[in-house]
Amino acid sequence: MGKSPTVHRRRLGSELRRLREIAGRTHREVAAHLDCSQGKISQIELGRVPVRTSDVRLMAEFYGATGDQVEALIDLAQDSKQRGWWQQYPSTAQRPGLQTYLGLETSAKAVSCFGSDPLPELLQTTDYTRALLMADSQVFTDDEIAERLKVVSIRQQRLLGENPLELWAVLDESALRRCVGGPAVLRQQLEHLVLLGYRRNVTLQVLPFKVGGHPLMGDRAAVFSFADEADPQVVHLGDSANSRFLDKAADTSDYLKAFEQVCTNALNPKDSSAFISSVADELPT
User: Fold this and answer.
1) What do you get for the CA distance between the two ends of the chain, in Å?
2) What is the pLDDT of residue 106?
3) How much is the mean pLDDT over the chain?
4) Taking the alpha carbons of 164, 221, 122, 173 in that order, is the dihedral positive or negative?
């Protein structure tokens, strides 16, 4: 799928913030120079909004950037205006936080995730996803369900191909036992997990109930890592209705350590596969 506009915007914002700090300029000064609000400058630096190339040039020159730096920033600004593949799916594009999440996932080299139920969408079967949608408090039309299933299917293609996404998922035992869609659907889902675990780019671990407390209790977290060192790791917390994205080392370090601890507490991949199979065997036929 290539680089997404989300990553371009975040890199552009990060670089503009770096240049501003080197120049010793405040948000107030930059806003006055561009004749805009301080909030707009903050949103640009956080990579949350596209930026006009004329504003990028004004900001960069105000910071004393070189000609080459200015041109590189303008290239980033132009790339950040491209439409993401998900924007052709209207109900998906309107979900709060999801556009940023999909933009990061599309460009990531690796994703590590943990959460209780439901299972991560990258690992879901079509029947499992459909059952979740049918159980949602929001009533979806047939077209909306078809669209969401299509979007999940497109995302799952990242696990295939010559340069697949590296996925490391720690699954809470509750996600394996929640009988979404009934025994037959869950059995098929668990068997699908076992097969996915044989892929070189997929690592699955189970965190059993017997482990007890752990650093990520109550959290649903995903860590996005990128091939380009210019793109810092991003930690996503919550779900599409309550999303937070952290990319500063001071904010992400505790969550990265917590994920490492959860991985240490979880069963190793081989034992996790056996555990998933045992849960599937317990289901009525």
Assistant:
1) 40
2) 92
3) 91
4) positive
pLDDT reading at 123 higher than 80 = yes
Contacts of 32 (CB under 8 A, 6+ apart): none
Bridge partners (DSSP) listed for residue 205: 170
Task: Provide the CATH number for the domain formed by 89-282 in this structure.
Answer: 3.30.870
**Site of tokens 């561009």:** 34
Same fold, 5-79 and 89-282: no
Domain chopping of the chain, boundaries: 5-79, 89-282
- Per-residue tokens: 92: 């998906």
| Right CATH for 5-79 from 1.10.260.40, 3.90.1150.10, 3.40.50.970, 1.10.10.10 | 1.10.260.40
Residue 264 has pLDDT above 60, yes or no: yes
Question: According to the model, what pLDDT value does residue 93 have?
Answer: 66
pLDDT at position 92? 75
CA–CA dist 115, 102 (Å, integer):
18
Other Cβ atoms within 10 Å of 179 Cβ, number: 12
Describe the strand order of the beta sheet including 166-172 as a list of residue ranges.
202-207, 166-172, 110-115, 221-225, 234-237, 244-246
Element (H, E) at 53: helix 53-62
